[in-house]
Structures are given as structure tokens and as C-alpha cells.
Design goal:
single chain, about 375 residues, alpha+beta, Gamma Fibrinogen, Chain A, domain 1, 2 domains, nine-stranded antiparallel sheet, two-stranded antiparallel sheet, 6 helices, elongated, secreted, Fibrinogen_CS, Angiopoietin like 5
């Protein structure tokens, strides 16, 4: 009986358990039926976790990635700023170093410049430059008794009645020596296209091409009890030589624009200064330059059926004693006269001709020498 009762109890319990299991199974199946599978990659099995849990995990993962990315950007920004700061500091140090080097060099240059200036001052303040004579003729007369052969070259002259001395080139081996060179044109390397101030003061290189300067020539010529001869030596492109000489040569002062005055002519090149008629006569003409026009062309001249307003412009901007231009200009270029046709750019001494054609002149020298006077 007990067994039956026990068995009956067991049977009842089994029935209860079976019903409970059936209910649980039905509940589980119902829950599974209500849950929708997650969308994903094709063929992927349905998510076994609830959707809200999955979404929360994705949000957490996204938040973690964003935080990590922000930290990486901040770290990169700090590193970049530090790199830029380091580069700028390095450049600033380099600039500071270069600046100090430049400052030091400038200081040294200023020191050297001061020393050179002081040395020059001391050198030139020891004593005044001693002149060799009043002009080349005077130098020759002073040295002829003590020097058997006086060399040509640069000498210092101090004419009377002026306070300063200056250098000249003396020709001591040409026709007895004692010549003061006042102009030389040989190779065309010196630019003779000059304004009035340059022709007044002088320019060029004394051993080569140069113009001594009207003021200096005037001071030499204007010494008392002196008279000077002008000698013009010409050489053609065919190496033919000729000359023109005037036994008296003087200049008026600057107020009268250094007007030229010539004595009697002698030579083999013809008297181009005076030309063939009075209209071509350049004797007594004032000096003209590109910026000081005294050529007598007012308002213009007619030369070879051409209208000329300025003889200096017609003669390549050179300076000379023009008179309606005339037949002489020794300051032209020694280059081929066929260049620049229509303009007189070459050395001009029109009266020196061969078979009726003027010589093409490649070099000229103007020089002066004292003439013995009876005074």
C-alpha cells in the first residue's frame, strides 16, 4: 500500500513534471518564434543575443574608437607643434649665429677701412707732393744737365699762378723732347662722348688715350713770359704719318669758353683748323660740348645739303672748337669711318688728303712745347 501510494505519488509527480517541461518547452519555442534574426552578412546565422545588447556593444565599441582617435589626434598635434617649435628654434639659432658673424665682419671691415683711411692720411700728410717743373719743357731744361737721356712718362707739373699741381705725360724723345701731351687718341677704348665738365677737368689714362683738360692746358699756356707751340701728329690706317704745327697757341679763360687762338701754320697735313674759306675757319672759335653749344649753328647749319643743329651731336657727342662744324675734330673715334655713315664719328682732319680723298686716321697726338722768346 505504501508502495502503491508511493508509486501513485511518483506517477503524479511525473505527470506534473512532464506538464511543466511541456510548458517550458512551449514557452521557449514561443520566445524563439518572437525573436527576429539580425541582419548581417549573407549566410550569417541569426544573432543569438538580444538586439538591445548588440546595439549597446556597438555603441560602446564606437565610443571607444572615437576616444582612441581623439587621443591619437591630440598626441599627433602635440608632436607636430613640438616639431615645428624645435625647427623654428633651430632656425632662429642659425639666424642668430649668422647675424653675429655678419656683425663681426662689418666691424672688421669698418676697422680696416679706418686703418686704410688713417694710413692714407698719414701718407699724404707727411709732406706736399713735389712737382718736377712748371711744364714738360721746364722739366727737360732742368734735367738735361744732370740726366743724359730723359725718359718719356708721367711727371708732376705746377704751373705758375695756381695753388695745385697735377700729372701730365711728357714726351722727351720726340723732336727734341719737352712736349706736354694735351690729347691722345689711339684705339678708341676711351669714351670721348663727354659733357662740358669732363672736357674742362680732363679724363682718360695719361699713358694711353686721354684729354688733359681745358683748365690745366689754360694754366700751362697762361704762364708769364711764355709762348707755346702746338704740334699735331697724325697716323693713317695705312701707317702714313703727317703733322700740323702752329707757332703760337693759346686759350682764353673759361669765361670765354676757352676760345682757341692759333699762330702760323707749318706742316704736311694742311691747315684744317682754318679750312679753305672763312666759313670753315675754327681759329678763335669757343669750345663746345654736347651740353654747351658754342658752334655758331644758330639755329642750324647746312653742311653738305644736310641740316645740322649741333656740331657736337653731328660729331658723336664729342667736344671741340667747332665753328659751323668745320674741317677738324681730333676727338672723334679712330674706328673705321665707314661706320655710322652720315655722321662724322671718326677723327677728322679734312685737309690731309690722298688723291683728293681724306686719309682715314687711326691715331693722333696733340702736344705743346715752349718756344724761346726774346723777353
Amino acid at each position: 500500500m505504501n508502495l502503491s501510494a508511493h508509486t501513485g505519488l511518483d506517477t503524479g509527480n511525473s505527470t506534473i513534471f512532464n506538464q511543466s517541461e511541456i510548458l517550458n518547452e512551449d514557452s521557449s519555442q514561443a520566445h524563439v518564434k518572437t525573436q527576429k534574426p539580425l541582419r548581417g552578412v549573407k549566410g550569417q546565422e541569426a544573432c543569438s543575443m538580444p538586439c538591445d545588447v548588440t546595439a549597446k556593444l556597438l555603441r560602446d565599441e564606437k565610443h571607444s574608437l572615437c576616444v582612441h582617435l581623439q587621443q591619437s589626434l591630440l598626441t599627433f598635434g602635440r608632436s607636430t607643434r613640438k616639431l615645428i617649435r624645435d625647427v623654428m628654434e633651430e632656425q632662429q639659432r642659425a639666424l642668430d649665429f649668422l647675424s653675429s658673424q655678419v656683425t663681426e665682419l662689418m666691424t672688421r671691415v669698418q676697422t680696416l677701412s679706418s686703418e686704410v683711411q688713417r694710413s692714407n692720411t698719414e701718407m699724404y700728410s707727411i709732406k706736399p707732393v713735389q712737382s718736377h717743373g712748371r711744364d714738360c719743357s721746364d722739366i727737360k731744361d732742368n734735367l738735361i744737365s744732370v740726366v743724359p737721356k730723359i725718359p718719356s712718362g708721367i711727371y708732376i707739373v705746377h704751373p705758375e699762378n695756381i695753388d695745385s699741381s697735377f700729372e701730365v705725360f711728357c714726351e722727351m724723345d720726340y723732336m727734341g723732347g719737352g712736349w706736354t701731351v694735351i690729347q691722345r687718341r689711339t684705339d678708341g677704348l676711351t669714351d670721348f662722348k663727354r659733357p662740358w665738365a669732363d672736357y674742362s677737368d680732363g679724363f682718360g689714362h695719361l699713358p694711353g688715350e686721354h684729354w688733359l683738360g681745358l683748365r690745366k692746358v689754360f694754366h700751362i699756356l697762361n704762364q708769364k713770359d711764355t709762348r707755346f707751340q702746338l704740334h699735331i701728329a697724325l697716323v693713317s690706317h695705312d701707317d702714313i704719318t703727317s703733322y700740323a704745327s702752329y707757332d703760337d697757341f693759346r686759350l682764353d679763360n673759361e669765361t670765354h669758353f676757352f676760345s682757341i687762338h692759333l699762330g702760323r701754320y707749318a706742316g704736311s697735313a694742311g691747315d684744317a683748323f682754318r679750312g679753305y674759306d672763312q666759313e670753315q675757319n675754327q681759329d678763335t672759335a669757343p669750345f663746345s660740348a654736347s651740353d654747351v653749344d658754342n658752334d655758331g649753328c644758330n639755329p642750324f647749319c647746312s653742311i653738305n645739303n644736310r641740316t645740322v643743329e649741333s656740331c657736337s651731336s653731328q660729331h658723336n657727342q664729342t667736344g671741340w672748337w667747332f665753328n659751323q662744324c668745320g674741317l677738324a675734330n681730333l676727338n672723334g673715334s679712330p674706328q673705321d669711318p665707314e661706320q655710322n655713315r652720315g655722321r662724322s664719328t671718326h677723327i677728322l682732319w679734312d685737309t690731309w688728303r690722298q688723291n683728293g680723298v681724306p686719309h682715314s686716321i687711326k691715331s693722333v697726338t696733340m702736344k705743346i712745347r715752349r718756344i724761346t722768346t726774346n723777353n
